[in-house]
Amino acid sequence: MASFLPQFQSIKTSFDHVVLAVEDVSDLWPIVKKGFEERLPFRRAFLNNKTRNPVLVDELPAEYILTTDARLRSRFPQEQALFWFREPYATIVLVTCEDLDEFKNILKPRLKLIVQNDEREWFIVFVSKAPAHNDQATKMAKKVYAKLEVDFSSKKRERCCKLDLHGPDGHSWEDLEAKVMECIRNTLDRRIHFYEDEIRKLSEQRFMPVWNFCNFFILKESLAFMFEIAHLHEDALREYDELELCYLETVNMAGKRRDFGGLEQGDDQATLLDPGKKALAQIVQDDSFREFEFRQYLFACQAKLLFKLSRPFEVGSRGYSFIISFSKALALHERLLPFCMREVWVITACLALIDATASHYKDGLAAADVEKEFYRVQGELYTLCRTKFMRLGYLIGYGSDIDRSPVNSASLSMLPWPKPAVWPSLPSNASSEVLAKEKMILQESARPKHFGIQRKPLPLEPSVLLREANRRRASLSAGNMLELFDGRPYTNDGSGSPSPLPKGNTLSMSRTFSSTGNFEGSIDAPMRLAEIYVAAEHALRSTISDVEMWKSLSSVEEFEQKYLDLTKGAANNYHRSWWKRHGVVLDGEIAAVYHKHENYDFAANLYEKVCALYAGEGWENLLVEVLPNLAECQKILNDQAGYLSSCVRLLSLDKGLFLTKERQAFQSEVVRLAHSEMEHPVPLDVSSLIRFSGNQGPPLELCDGDPGTLSVMLRSGFPDDITLESLSLTLSATNNTDEGAKAVKKSEAIVLRPGRNNINFPLPPQKPGSYVLGVLTGQIGQLRFRSHSSSKSGPADTDDFSSYEKPTRPILKVAKPRSLVDLTAAVSSALLMNESQWVGIIVKPIDYSLKGAVLHIDTGPGLRIEDRHGIEIEKHEVGSRKTPNLDNQPDNLSPVSAAVKQLIPEDGKISLPDWTSNITSVLWIPLLAVSDGLAKGTPAGTVVPPRQNVVDGLRTIALKLDFGASHNQTFEKTIAVHFTNPFHVSTRVADKCNDGTLLLQVILQSQVKASLVIYDAWLDLQDGFAHAGKADGRPASSFFPLVVSSKSRAGILFTICLADTLAKDEAKQLDPASILNIRYTISGSRKLGAHSPVTEELSEPDNIKAEHLTFRSALVLQRPVLDPCLAVGFLPLPSSGIRVGQLVTMKWRVERLKDSEETMPSDNLDEVLYEVDINSENWMVAGRKRGYVSLSSKQGSRIEISILCLPLVAGYVRPPQLGLPNVGETNISCNPPGPHLVCVLPSPLSSSYCVPAA
Amino acid sequence: MASTACFMIVSKNDIPIYEAEVGTVPKKEDAAHQHQFILHAALDIVQDMAWTTSAMFLKAIDRFNDLVVSVYVTAG
């Protein structure tokens, strides 16, 4: 069967649709052909797939072939069975007949003959040529067709259909197509069944010696092909998948050794997408196929079907795994294949796959995740291709042009060297090329990294190429391996110094070499690196058949171009697949190429992306590789801001990643740039480099309005000291976000040491609230930096990544305004008027230091400071108030004690001493309250409004205290101090003696909280009075000293008598009142109230001799009236009594007792004013209450005043009273002399209200 | 056989927070770079995989020549 392969191949290439046979019985085909073929391909065909499920095929191409056609005639039966798929799927018998007899006699037997024999699917198309208007012909055609149906259609199946050439179209064609489709479906089912049977039969022999894979393949592929032409691509694909599985099983079956293939010219180019590249017959080997070609063929068939199914993504993903697995297969046979065949094949396969899938793929057709996957696979293919391409480049000496980045290093250093049986040896005529390579090797020098960073380059090779190549050379014996490294300067081929090979290697090597038996001519010294390169180049040239590919390896420039293309392709696809890390890393590789070619602009852009990725995710080890390159590009591009930022980022990386020297280089660059002539100040974020935090412990607490000093800890990440021109820090209030952050500044230059620095910021007064650290800004030369990273609380050394999740700790708390100090009067009781007195003011700091406080004292009117004396200050002791017994208090009035200090006021200002700054102290100010008027005595019994007294004695002191750290706080208060006279004096006449002398009692009421001692008292009498006897107005001296305790009373009696008066006018002017003089001393404590006046002799020991004070009080004495001039008598009421509701006449009789001229000089008109005082609740007055009555001024004249009243209430009530307002009370003699009561009876019962008892 | 392995804990923001080179092979300077690079690149795969499965252990998600990347995704 295998011999049919070439034929099979040719059939497959020429045949791609379903064939339908046309048996043209009545020569109708030329007429109907057009109509038939117009309707091809079939639309919306339903076919059954392998599992007998209907599948909708959108489009089924088909061809009508007459049975007389040569293509259908010359076929051998065996071929027919094998390639059944190309046999017609239906036979359409075209007939026409217009005569029943003709049908019966000629047509019917013929048709019977045609349809009887085989199992072909057939049906008869009766073509009616009758024109529509010819009823006769139409009728006849109908009859014939009916007859035809009777004869050929069965109940099971209708095998006839009618096509009316002139009739209406439509229905008849649909019927025809349905018939055709039914036939195709049936045929397909039957053939599938047949192939399946055959395949099953063959499969059962799989483990028998007769098993032939080629036979199996032909059957299986025939089936697959049949599916394909029926457009059942899914089923076809499944067949190929099964075929592949079966083949791999066959290949891997142990015991059978087969050629792998891949040794022919052009095999290096992958044919995984071109099934027709090589004829299958060429790759037959015994009973199977060569693996190299056949697997690619199978994949190509699959890929073709997948493309037809519009699944380019699947081609890509299947292709990628195919390449990987095929590459492994190549590795197994690498020893037999040309040098680097595997790498070359993978490169071409990847590129072919990429091209094919990309051209078939249309964006937006697939689902989003499929699209992502598609691009990812594209990226993977590019990456694979790129890796292999780099490997080839390295082998021929372009290694130094490959960036030794982590990605390249990771790709290449783990990828084993090619393992040819024998490493290619140097062609004889290549000495000039070797020289050129030598030169290239010598010229290349590792480009010095920016900042003088010295790094061991990352490896691009799994082991030293020199050693590997020489080890694999047939010409070297195992013995001289060690000579390799002797006396030979080591060229720059990567890394590491030569090390003796392990001894185990020698054995394995000798075996390797002996087994190949492929010794080449010269047995000489080991190859040098340049020779290895040249040898590899020559070997590759013979391996690579593709001109384009060889071109891209022919020179460094071409290599780089291709390398760049591949890298870009990979990066772009990774980006489109959202694998940003893969994409960005490759962007870094592109940047490296641009960097090398001094295309710094592009390089910087791409490097920035890479750095942003690594920095954003914190992969510092990887960032270290790229960031210096970015910095270099930025420096060359004169991007100062970028360069500075890169330097700062370099500095902020983990210290272990760079040497101190390198870090110093970064810093010096920053400083140099900052102080160079930059056009504009450059803002820079140094959050990672300069961190700051408040000091440990509770936040600084300030009172409202106070300035302070904020201590902030700065951590400098610079390796050396660095000078900052200025530094400022913003504070943001936590409670009030509307208000912007406030900045505190430190304008002088600061030198930051590496590590921890404590910086004190002067803090102006802030609003109340709690503040957290905001942003730190500062300036280094032209560089304006800012740092946001306040490393909150906690141990500042930990570089913990989660610090931003911690709540912010307030650094400063400014308290709400509150009283910080209080000034109160020390004494609440009254002090002595007109004497200098100590006024105590308690200065009480409320949790606030009064250091440096200044008190301004401003006395109000009637008060002045006694400048002669200093102001005293002492500690205020609460306990000192617990001595209530004034009398027992020693007269220690001298305030000087250990705790008392003298202060001298300046312009009304006093600076409080420091020792008082935190304690409550009392300030004693000597003050004199001045009152011009004399104290006035009052007659006993009269009530003097006390308020008047108090107001008279009230003085105010306005106090203003400036305090606080910078005298920013002010406290103002006005204190009222009460001054009073020592005594309140009242007088009464105690007795009127018969001889005209009067006993005048003077009552002294102490007004102060101190004991007073009266030493002397005398009375300067006013005109009209004289002292009785010879006395000088003094009481008996034996009474003195008289002690008057606090708030107690004392009395002194004076005997006086009336004296003649002087002329009235003079008397009034000279001496309106008598004066009481009292000489006294006071013994009281200033802590309680009044005390002895401030004296200059503060240190005088004998306090008793303290100066006697004099108190003077005016007393107004009135001459007593001895005889009243008028008499008022209440006349008796009617005897019947008075009743409520009955009018009653009240009568008074007024009688002049003596002539009025003397006593009442003003009342010359003899008119006397009267007034009735009446209680309106008890009485109602009918008539005038007030009026004048005429009364003769003669002695004895009388008059009667009567008033009609109505009593309102019953009981004893006070009757109305008659008063004479113009006459002094003393001149009236009343009868009855005092108030009296009268009895008012209830109103008489009213009989009209009484109901007589029954 | 000498083996090398790198163990790394990566925070939710893809930031490496712990790294340890384990294994019997003497520590190579460039291995650290290589391992970091491979693990970093593997995050691309993790970010896709983590949402497709409810399993926490994602098994071997990536292979880099001889090195295999296995991932365990923690909850939360």
What keywords describe this structure?
heterodimer, A: 1254 residues, alpha+beta, 7 domains, 7-stranded mixed beta sheet, 6-stranded antiparallel beta sheet, 25% strand, elongated, B: 76 residues, Beta-Lactamase, two-stranded antiparallel ribbon, two-stranded antiparallel sheet, globular
Describe the structure.
Chain A: Keywords: Golgi apparatus, Transport. Chain A: It comes from Erythranthe guttata (Yellow monkey flower). Chain A: It holds the Pfam family TRAPPC10_1st. The complex is a heterodimer of chains A (1254) and B (76). Chain A is an alpha+beta fold and 1254 residues long. Chain A has seven domains: 2-256, no CATH class; 262-285 and 334-471 and 526-597, no CATH class; 599-680; 681-792 and 809-815, Immunoglobulin-like, CATH 2.60.40; 821-877 and 899-940 and 951-978, Immunoglobulin-like; 982-1059 and 1072-1091 and 1107-1115, Immunoglobulins (Immunoglobulin-like, Sandwich); 1126-1155 and 1164-1246, Immunoglobulin-like, CATH 2.60.40.10. In chain A, strands 10, 12, 15, 16, 19, 20 and 21 form a seven-stranded mixed β-sheet that branches. In chain A, strand 19 (769-780) and strand 20 (783-787) form a beta hairpin. In chain A, helix 10 packs antiparallel against helix 11, helix 21 packs antiparallel against helix 22 and helix 24 packs antiparallel against helix 25 (660-675). In chain A, 38% of the residues are buried. In chain B, the strands form two sheets. In chain B, strands 1-2 form a two-stranded antiparallel sheet. A two-stranded antiparallel sheet of chain B has the order 3-4. Chain B has one helix spanning 29-49, and strands at 4-10, 16-23, 57-64, 67-72. Chain B has a single domain, classed as Beta-Lactamase (2-Layer Sandwich), CATH 3.30.450. The model of chain B has no long low-confidence stretch (mean pLDDT 81). By secondary structure, chain B is of the alpha+beta class. Chain A binds chain B through residues 372, 406-407, 409-410, 413-415, 456, 458-459, 574, 578-582, 585, 614, 616-619, 621-622, 625, 801, and chain B through 11, 13-17, 29-30, 32-34, 36-38, 40-41, 43-45, 48, 64-67.
